[in-house]
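From the shared-data thread, chain only:
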Amino acid sequence: MTNDQFASHHGYTTFEEMIDLSTIVLSIYGELWIISPTGNEFLAWVDKHYDQPLGCFETFEEAESYIVGLCRALCVLSQKL
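Structure, as tokens:
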């Protein structure tokens, strides 16, 4: 799947439009953790791994909380390694 196909699948004309209309929540190690409105939901995803979205949420706040929680868990795991 190309990035434009990903964007089209979620209701956008192009990947660039999707990025422009989305909110970047975090930038970690060169990866953007993003929330995009998709009709009645909010899609959480990472720009470098757009083909594996994190999930859809009913509210922006739920998507943001999920991203922040996931990043915190990843930081804890990386400190233990």
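Residues 35 and 44 are 5 Å apart (CA to CA).
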